[in-house]
């Protein structure tokens, strides 16, 4: 009935370069690798005395956070500043705005200020797709987390960390543990891992925290930690929000910890060289034992450094994709008016 | 259409000699050589060998420092710059293959300064096309070439190194 | 006023009449089919050659947004849209503001419809006062005032005892009760069918059980109370199968489906287009196949538009934050013709679901072409291509995924009680 194009193509310009970064789904392995390669260059930049490149000088980046976040917001701010962009931070709590129209109004106001890029976090899945469809051309939209849908920069920084430690993705068995149902991080990780060619992606959680038909995303489903962790090379823990206890999804934190908390004991089932990751902030004693979180296999702090590099990479690549598209449009316009 | 190929070895020998004299005259000891990706790195490697320098060589990728981002965007396949030792207070020999407008060298110098303040920068280029757009001139050049408007020059390498002159096929 | 409709293919699904002939209309009624009655002189002749003349369509669920939500549409605009779509009778749900639980509101709706004069509105009354699910509404009085049926829509009657009383009271007066089955808990916060697409998009899902559990509860109480009942806009195969089983066991129960649920699936939501934010949600391909099968085996007596116009702003937001529903009056016939084009059902069978089928559900006489009956007619060219555009759209709402799509089957004339209420061009 409807000839549907892949909706994730909205992220690419006519030459297949990134112009928005909304989701890891539907992007090619080449493009994801390019993001990681570019990020690698920015990781090395920390050796510079002046930790800044002039790439986005004169560009205005607006951090639009409709949902509270200090960590993600500040890494995006730092990333933008290291690219020499001017940064404006706006925290708009959704409760103070009636939905819909206000989002549109906010966008129009921002555009009137000649912003070049929106970094957006929103509690509604798909909000960034809506914004990308409605912003003026030339403005790049970077998804800093939308509802349960996607958190692509978090997933890509995880991929960068994995690649730094494991190199090739193809032999890797990766387990994602915890609240898959509510996790935009998990969804983005799954798409990225699958595209980058990981041998096996597993999710481990009780059925109350697993979305229906998650296996359709190409993952193996486990409800038991010992079986799920067996021989894995990478363990990616998810954050468990405390309010989940109140909505009849789990009986208690204690029982969740006992069954799904990552302890040294459970980690023994994984490959001896397995690495442990967590997007933070950590709930010690709920998702992960302190000894594991602070232990030698934990890469939780590395992830913060990589976070800045990955965000610099997608920001510069998206701005680049917008720039070349705008240049092409101007050329076409010129040739039409000739 | 390739209209001419020039061997590089003779030019490299000339550059080595001139650099040795230049460094001696300036009393520069233990300089650090830095090549600009991609062609500049090949030339820098050759000079590093010829000059028998002890200090490890540096590699610059100036993609993040170019001044044409707003027109052409980010260059694909950006690779990290590698500066194995600190540049602070060092005498630097910056090497590029073809010196044209001077914009690449400007970007490279900006990047070097972001790593620290060098004592001096000496610019060495294999070919100078004499098409300066900025007040930037090489201290040592292999050759000066005057090309017709439709001609292009390109260094191919790394083994063997040669210069190709081609005409744009209009 | 005497009108002759000349040379059209007259299809009356109720009598299985299907032939090219002339219709004669006098004093708002069908005076004769085939040969002119004695002394008939036509004041107006409509050339219907190469066109189909069918009974005016009956839409079992169309929101007209008046009173109370006139920013989304009003009785004048929405009945004009109905006429443009060949619809002469439409049933409106009671969730106006104020809610249709008093005769004053029911009178107002019917008065406005008469003033507008484009289509007949049969209002549904609230099953419980304020649709709050607690107190019985004055159903007998409302029925006297013109309510065709009673429904609590998708608002829950949580207490099954209260629901039982409602059905018993309706049964006492032989009133029709319409269910739009939805379990409040299971559907809470849901924006689309719970399945793979929903999981990928990270939206809150509405599981099939949200509908089937409520259908099961209602069927058991229908059986216990013996009330005349109808299920509106079912979306799951399982639901319609349960209703069909109940019919087989002799229950007086019928069902309809919104045309979009026969054509689209949850996969259309990919890309977060708010025009696909519909309640009931578009279900899986398997469901769609099952629902189509059910249509063939008379599981559905009617196809409706579930017309829900919105102001532009209502759809300008992230998917889940938009208001659900699409406009459908003007596209109901064309979209239903797709089923014929796909050779799922014949033209006459399809028309029965839009005319005599819904008429029987409601227990009214219209929806057929017969001498002496009111001349509610729809004349359309089943092959003519057209497309709905914001400029040509009669409804105040432009919220439909079919906006701008080329559709087949264009209405040229609509007659309501012998009066031309819509004419193309």
Helix coverage percent of chain A: 25-40%
Radius of gyration of chain A: 20 Å
Strand content of chain B: 25-35%
Radius of gyration of chain B: 16 Å
Regarding quaternary structure, what we see is: heterotrimer
Question: Which blocks of ≥5 consecutive residues of chain B have pLDDT under 50?
Answer: none
Secondary structure elements and pairings:
The complex is a heterotrimer of chains A (338), B (170) and C (425).
Chain A: H1 29-44, E1 60-65, H2 71-82, E2 86-91, H3 101-112, E3 117-122, H4 127-134, E4 140-146, H5 152-166, E5 173-177, H6 184-195, E6 200-204, E7 220-222, H7 225-229, E8 234-237, H8 253-260, H9 264-267, E9 275-277, H10 290-293, H11 302-337
Parallel strand pairs in A: 1-2, 1-3, 3-4, 5-6, 5-8, 6-7, 8-9
Helix pairs in contact in A: 1-5, 1-11, 2-11, 5-6, 5-11
Chain B: E1 2-7, H1 9-26, E2 32-36, H2 39-51, E3 58-60, H3 69-72, E4 91-99, H4 103-115, E5 120-128, E6 140-144, E7 151-156, E8 162-167
Helix pairs in contact in B: 1-2
Chain C: E1 2-12, E2 17-26, E3 29-33, E4 44-47, E5 52-55, E6 57-59, H1 75-84, E7 87-92, H2 103-116, E8 120-126, H3 139-145, E9 149-151, H4 160-172, E10 176-179, H5 184-187, E11 192-193, H6 196-201, E12 205-206, H7 209-225, E13 228-231, H8 237-248, E14 253-258, H9 259-263, H10 285-296, E15 302-304, H11 332-341, H12 347-354, H13 356-362, E16 377-387, E17 406-416, E18 419-423
Parallel strand pairs in C: 1-4, 1-5, 6-7, 7-8, 8-9, 9-10, 10-13, 11-12, 13-14, 14-15
Antiparallel strand pairs in C: 1-2, 2-3, 5-16, 16-17, 17-18
Give a written overview of the molecule:
The complex is a heterotrimer of chains A (about 350), B (about 170) and C (about 425). Chain A is of the alpha/beta class. Chain A folds into 2 domains: about 5-150 and about 305-335, Aspartate/ornithine carbamoyltransferase (Rossmann fold); about 150-300, Aspartate/ornithine carbamoyltransferase (Rossmann fold). Chain A is built from 11 helices and 9 strands. Chain A has a 5-stranded parallel β-sheet with strand order 7-6-5-8-9. Chain A has a 4-stranded parallel β-sheet with strand order 2-1-3-4, with helices on both faces. The radius of gyration of chain A is 20 Å and the shape is globular. In chain A, about 50% of the residues are buried. The model of chain A has no long low-confidence stretch (mean pLDDT about 90). Chain B starts with a strand and ends with a strand. In chain B, helix 1 crosses helix 2 (about 40-50). With about 170 residues, chain B is of the alpha/beta class. The longest helix of chain B is centred in the first third of the chain and has 18 residues, at about 10-25. Chain B is built from 4 helices and 8 strands. In chain C, about 30% of the residues lie in helices and about 25% in strands. In chain C, a hairpin with a 2-residue loop joins strand 2 (about 15-25) and strand 3. Chain C is globular. The mean pLDDT of chain C is about 95. The interface of A and B includes residues 38, 40, 44, 320 and 321 of A.
